[in-house]
What we know:
Elements: H1 2-24, E1 27-32, H2 37-49, E2 54-56, H3 66-72, H4 81-97, E3 104-108, H5 116-121, E4 128-131, H6 147-154, H7 156-159, E5 166-170, H8 174-177, E6 186-191, E7 198-208, E8 211-221, E9 224-231, H9 236-251, H10 256-264, E10 274-278, E11 282-287, H11 293-305, E12 312-317, H12 326-340, E13 343-347, H13 352-360, E14 368-371, H14 374-384, E15 390-394, H15 403-409, H16 416-419, H17 425-428
Parallel strand pairs: 1-3, 1-4, 2-3, 4-5, 5-6, 6-7, 11-15, 12-13, 12-15, 13-14
Antiparallel strand pairs: 7-8, 8-9, 10-11
Amino acid sequence: MKSIFKHIVVTLLTLEAKLVLRRHKPRIIAVTGSVGKTTTKDAIYFALHAQRSVRRNQKSFNSEIGVPLTILGLQNQWGSALGWGAVLVVGLYRAFFSKEYPEWLILEAGVDAPGDMRKLCRWLAPDVTVLTRFPDTPVHVEQFPSPQAVIAEKRNLVRALATDGLLVVNYDDPKTRREEPREEQRKITFGLAQGADVRARLVKPLIQEGAVVGMQCSVSYGDAVAELHIHGVLGVQPVYAALAGIAVAVGTGMTLQEAIDGVAGAVHPPGRMRIIPGKNDTIVIDDSYNSSPAALEEALATLGRLKVRGHKIALLGDMLQLGEYTVKAHTEAGIHVAEVVDELVTVGVRARAIAKSARDAGMATERVHECSDAYKAADIVLERLTKGDVILVKGSESGIRLERAVKVLMAEPERAGELLVRQEEEWLKRK
């Protein structure tokens, strides 16, 4: 019954969204990839919003429900039948009678199963398509026959690009770099490697008053060069997201400095490499929103590059939806962990392979701990926490919920609603 109700809601919301697009004709920026979609979508929003009227997806609502809700400017009602009824009524009114509407829509588009992107592209034609990165083992691969099939599904968004549209791709990823525009379409690339149109150099942590507070780099586009400071997050991924935002901005008529001024003021989404002060003068790198092989590899690399006063601790949960690649991905992660961290705590059945692999790679047994839930993991970390430690927290969302561990470890747990992912009442009620 729930599936029938959901199908009806999705069908009606999509119809209303189509009507809104037909009436108002906003310019559409669509973002896809297997790494960094939400941070990229948000960076594009901040790059543009000071100069233009824009709207973006809330959080990571990038599904068959999330995209129409964004177009209609409505909220997710989760499991409330009455709430969805009200949403459909308001959506119908907006489809026919709304007057004011944003000039630009920024839509994050994800896939969970074969056919998801094709369905979206039947009624959505982006003016700008942005590709983040296609790693060798993408998330959701267990629903597809191969990693290549996941990529092929997401590439439907490139084929749907408007005739005179702009294609924005990650130059550093060979799988996205090879995408070429058709006829009147244009292409602009971003990345760290020489050859990227929008290029970042001298990427390093931003240090202020002896503390790491973000990332900094120099960004060039054509003959223009400007400095970019990104506050509150760590790693290369926020830099890539900022570069994508800058690329969209300059590709649609803004100057490099205007774009940088915008992304420098970005408020970064919770649970994605956020820097959070921890108990006992420590730092928590909160990457608890989700986990995949490529994202975990980059998070560990970031931790490895940091200079810390204390120890490096990794609190890692299961990576889900990897199908036949599950054991291999977790085993490879354990090898990397052993090269980087001083203490490892794992959560979940699949993450046991991370622990075993780390021990096999030479990590001392007494420094590897396995447990079944986030709270126990946090207690283990607290028992070993010393001043100056840095704790990386990363795991997939469903059932692992490592934001619960972050709340225990953070110096100001009363700010959880402000700083952490999944703090809505619907999530907090779930066990």
